[in-house]
Structures are given as C-alpha cells and as structure tokens.
C-alpha cells in the first residue's frame, strides 16, 4: 500500500520569498569549516624550513578551505598577512591525505614582508582609488559613486557600478611587492571593474598613496593571438567548402522535452548529424534540478529570482542553474537579463533549424542551444571529477553548504565584439563566468562566377563588404552585369558618383558594375563621396539588385575588402573585384557583349558549434578556479598581470577540449577507430576544414606518435615558443600522452560522468593536480602535482607510469624549470631531461591497436556512478494534469521513498512504497499541486535517482 502525505500546494507568488529564505543566489560565505590548528602549524613549519621567517609565515589569512568528496583530501588556501592586511599574490596552501594528515605545503610568500611593509594607513580614500583605477583603464570617471557594502578596508568594501562597471565595484586594501624587487613593498588599493562592453573584467592595483598603477590583470582569457596566427596559415590554403552532410532540420523534428545538438563527444558539424537529447536525462547528481528552467520576459537584473518567481509555461529558454545561453550579436552585456534566447515553448522543444553552409545568422538559435548543452555537460563532467561547489564551480544556486553561488556561466553566441576569437572570464568564486563565442571568417573568399560569354567563363575571387545585406543570406545573386553611367564622372560615367544614373533603366533589376574612386575629380558643385558605401547606395537607388566595385587600376591583382561609415539604409549586397578581373569584364561590356553570372558568398563559421573550442574556453574557468583556490583568480598569470604567461592554462584547456571530444575509439569490433596515435586537432571547423581531422589552429597535431608531434620540454627554449598558446600546446601534449596510457591500462569509458575507465581516472588526477599545485606553476610544478594527486588518490599506483610519460617528453627527474621572475616561471634556464628518479623502473609504453571498453556499473554507491542514472526513472504523462505515474525497473531491495520538489526545493509530495510497487508504477495525485516544473526523486538502497516533470492544469 502506497502512503503519501500532501503538503499545501506551492503558489507562484511564494517562490521568490522561498528562494530568499533559503539563501538562493546568495554570495555570502557558505562554508563554515576552518582548517585545523595542526594543518596551520604544519604549514608554518614547512614555510620556515623553506627559508621564511616566522613573522612572515605567522597568522596567514584563510581564503578557501574544503574537502574533496572523492579522495577525502582537505585543501586549505592561504594568503600572507602583515599588519592585518593581506599581501597580494602571496599565496600558499596546505593539503592532507584522506585521513586528514598534512602531506604537502607550498607557498609564494614574500620574504621579509613583515619588516619591510609600510604602515597600513592609505592616503587615498577608497573612492579616490576607484577614480584612479578608471584613469588607469582609460574609462570615464565614475559618476554617483555610492558605498553599498561597508567593511574594514583590509576585508573589502563595495561601491555601486558608478556608471562604468557592469557589476558593483569591489575595493580592498593590500600590500603589493614589486615582482622584480620584492624588497619594495607598497600599500595598495585593489579595484575590480567589469567593463560595460563585456570585453574586459579588470583587477587593478593602484598605489594607496599616489594612485599610480602597480598591477593590472584581465580575468578575461582571450584566444586571439595564436588563434589568428595559426588561422592565417589555413587561409593561405585553397579550401573546398565542406560537403553538406547536414540536412536542414525543420522546426519541431525533435521530440518535446529535448535539445537538438551535436552531443558529447561530437566535435562539430563535421562529425555527423545532430541528435535530440532528452531534457529528462539531464537531471543527475551534479544538476539535481536539471539544466533548464522557465523564464518570463523581464527587464530587471534579478534574472534568476524572476525565473523562479514568475514561471511562464509558454516561455521556456535555454537557461538554468549552470548556464544562461543567449545571442550577443549587439555586443550588449546586459542581454542575458532579457529573453534574447530561443523559446522552446510549453513542450520544451529546443529543436531549431540548422543548415550546413548557410549564413550563421540563420543557424543562430541552433547554435545557442548547442552552446547551452555543452556548457551544461562540461559543468556535470567536471563536477563528477572534482570541480564541484566546494572548489568553486559555476552555479547560480549551490545545493550544499560549500562554496559560493550566484555565478552561473553567461554563454554568449555570435558575440558582436570581435571575430576569429573566443574568450572566457573567470573572476573569483561567487562572480559570474562569461563565455564569448565569436564568428570566424571563412577562409574561402566570396566569388563572382561568369557563365557567359564563354571567353570570360570562370570564377573570380572577390572582397566582401562590411555593410549592406550579407551575400551569404541573400545569395546567390544572379543576373546581367551592367556598367553604370552617372553622366558626369570619367570613364564614361562608370564611377557612379551621382544619382539618378543616365542609364538607370538599364541598371534596374541587374547587377551594377562601378569603378572605384573618381568622384573627387568632379567639377565643383557636383562632387560626392567616393566611399564604397556611397557608391553602393546610389546603385541601390537606381534599382540594382547588387553592386560590384572594380579596381580603377586594370593591372592590380590585390583583392580589397570594403568598409564604410555612411552605411545606413543599404539593403543590397556588394563585392569588390581586383583590377585585372574587373578590366576584363569592363572590356566585354564596353564592346556590347552581354555578361551574365552569379555572385556567391562564403558563410562564416560560428564557434558555438565547435565543441572543442567551447570546451577549451570552459576549461579556463576550471583551471583558474582550482589553482590557488576558488577565491584566487590570479594564480595563472605573471606577477605583472601579463597574460602571455597564461601558458599552462592554455594547455589544460586544449586537453579538456580533446578529452570531451574523444569518440570512435578503436576496439576489437571497431579496429579502424582512434587511438593515442591518431592525430587530433583544435579548431578544424572554425577555420573551414572539410573534416575534423585538421590541421586546425595549432603547430602540431596532438598524438603520442613523436614523429608527428616531436614536442619535448626543451622546445620551450626556442623563439617559436614564446607565445602563450604555443607553450601551452607542449603541456597539453604531455597530458594527452598520459591520458592514452591510462586508457590502455584501465580501458575507455564512454560514460564521461563515470569514475572508472582510464579516461575518467586521468581527468580526475588532472583536476586534483590543479588543486595541489603552487600558485603560478611551471611545467615541473604541474608534473609534481599530478604525481602527488596519484599518491593521495591511489597510493602512488601510477607513479612509474606518470614519470615515464613525462620523461619521454623531456620533463624527467633531472629536468630544470625556468628561472622565476617575481615568483613566476620563465623560459630562461629551462633544461630538459629524460631520466627517471633513482630506484623507479620505467613503465612500459603501451601502444595497442585497440582499446578495451569499460562501462559504468549499475548498483554501485559512488556519486560519480549514480550521475548517469537519472534517465532510468519514468514519469508520465509529461506534462501531468491530475495524475502522475512514476515507474522504474531498478534492481533494488527494501522500501523506496518518492519525493516531488519544486524548483526552489520545497517538497510538494512525499511518500514510501515497496520496490515492487515502483516497478509496477506508483500513481500520484497531482490535482492539488500548483502548475510548474518539479523534480521527481526516488531514494533506494541502490542510490538516488531523479527526473523532471511538468504539472499543468
């Protein structure tokens, strides 16, 4: 007999109050535990042994402290403190094994800081510090600056945005040591400003006496340098447009309650067709309320409070606790608070059209949904490996008591602030991460194809215009070519300087051919602008369906793009032809020959569909939050804030991108699949490759075949490896080799949320290593942290293997890390070595032709294994009206508990039943439950399982 107790129906109006009462979205410190005296004493002892005085090591501030749920290790992150004020960048840490015993301490404290630090009395007020920071950044001076959170300066206070920042402006007093001369210590104000254009999120330190800049760091990690550098290589190649393997999908093809995406582990549209992913399968241990929530149109910045207080069953957006995905074509940083996202409607049908080879604007909604899906998958996968609430992951609401909420990822598709780029902003825990995905220029130029006369037949590359209608969306444009005659300019009026044309009737309905320049030479009183845009506008006014500007010098072979500022009102597309091609067309038309042809555009590529790049960007948030603790977002930069030293972060991000897109591995039944020898690439889709097999945007492919990727540690001394991504590529290569050696030994698990399988085990070690390594690590620091992570998690079972792989790539026992400048590793003094530690026998480097596939076992207890099981609970009908049936064929024993919770956690129904009743189907009366989305949770002795259901009346 099933017995259920009903609570009062949940009313919509009470949801916001419930959220506030439960601390939903609060950014207050949510972790009450503190490191033990034993732990802090161990840190002090080790610090003194490393050469610091007891005064320098005494009473550091605790920035973060948490326990790893999987390994049991405790991580305490500290900052040097003098005169009650923290020393900026002076970060330390102490870590324990699973028993709580301290086993590792590291620090980057400033020697003699206690003796050298000036008095902690600033001359500048906090308000003056904000003004000084705005001057340093070249921003307008703040207006109406008001203190909104008062506190001791050394603990941090907060002002409103002053009209110059997207968020409130935190200000905090620090000591700052000159990185090149640490005996020079300044009292400084730290000011954090998120620029309104969304391009930079600055952390600035100004001298508390003079206002002079001491340090500047951007939380936004941008890819532009090497992405553009390597992309240029691809643009010089002749490309063939990718085969249109993707069929255009009409709206509504997918089942309701689903997302139509390129799912894990598909790398891009080059990998195959989209798949409908049921939203019910997105409820798991790491996202217990699922990924998607309802959203009513609103203009108030309390985005998630309004989500939960104003449910609207007819407006369902790709936004939730982990990520809000939307388009930012307009480059408006506040669009995330509006409904600038595709609406899945009451049936939660997130299937939007996608057509391969068309302009990216036509695929915008599909790209937003794909971006939403991948950010959520990355959230769940990384959480299953240790990047959880305690360690600073990205969630608006934290479901436990650790870490800070209020910081879901804002994922912006087709961001209008740039091209050929992508970035991720990672401020400290409790502040939103932001991913900006840009369009990438198609390396294939637009072209003009002449079909008649036969003497001109062929294709001519052309330059595009940054104004007017996009030829990709409008084209192809076909018709007769007509030379314009404005009646006044040279070359028979071909310059199109005035309107109406003398031959307006001939131009009407055809493609206008116009010569560049020539308008400045007109007689006084009849001169008009020679701009490209002006010429195209006049062609439009004379009825042309398109304009082609030809170079005025008939021997020129350069292809130019066209820009303009006077572009308002231009609705037709236009192209530019080089002089030699334009001269041939002009000659034919002048002789009376009819010239017929078409103009075709080349669609740009939307990085929201390149899942390797999406994973790369999210990876910056992972490595930044884990290194030095979630409250420190400046432990992967140089001491002066130069992001050129963000080298290892780029390496981790490439590794994450490769890991998340590992598919079709070679097995006994699939011997042609991929292994560690298979070359892998980053960014093949966005640079217009025909397959996801490269070459992409890196120097060498990722492979453990050293004939294809010969990178060793010593290559960093080469001048070619002085750029952040090139250096990171070497680190990623080492990790990639190790990943495959783990796979060869422990098998490959296609369930990326699982804990068994070599791929899952190694990703966990990589994340654990980030937690353990020193602030601003070098390659050898990162190596040692992975070794120590294996010691804590596995008793050092993989130590020989880890040493063997690093040694093979030149990071062996006798290798020397670069000389530190201001506490940061450099390339100076790097020495590679290929030896093993004394007494450690090298592990055999495996290279099998096939891989063993392992599966996530059912009925096990670790949370990592339960994460994939949400879909085995059936709840129907969905949406439910007066009655809901919950059923599962779980192989469990004893009673089960069934609970329905609303989206703020309030219990609407709860009850117990036998496992047999669950298998036959438990019927629940939903007539008295308020309409809305609910989590169905089933607790059994085999684990906890969830799904999501909508109640409608």
TrEMBL record:
Q: Where is the FTP domain?
A: 62-103
Endpoints of the signal sequence: 1-30
**What keywords were assigned to this record?**
Hydrolase, Metal-binding, Metalloprotease, Protease, Secreted, Signal, Zinc, Zymogen
Q: Where is the composition biased (Low complexity)?
A: 237-250
UniProt keyword Hydrolase present? yes
Which coenzymes or cofactors are required? Zn(2+)
Domain of life of the organism encoding this protein: Bacteria
Q: Where in the cell is it found?
A: Secreted
PA domain residues are: 493-585
Carries keyword Heme?
no
Q: Name one Pfam family in it.
A: Peptidase_M36
Which residue range or ranges hold the Secretion system C-terminal sorting domain? 876-950
Region (Disordered) spans which residues? 231-252
The record, for InterPro entries, names: FTP_domain, Fungal_virulence_M36, PA_domain, Peptidase_M36, Peptidase_M4/M1_CTD_sf, Secre_tail
The record's NCBIfam families line, in alphabetical order, gives:
Por_Secre_tail
Q: What family does this belong to?
A: Belongs to the peptidase M36 family.
In Swiss-Prot or TrEMBL terms, this protein is called M36 family metallopeptidase
Q: What is the lineage of its organism?
A: Bacteria, Pseudomonadati, Bacteroidota, Cytophagia, Cytophagales
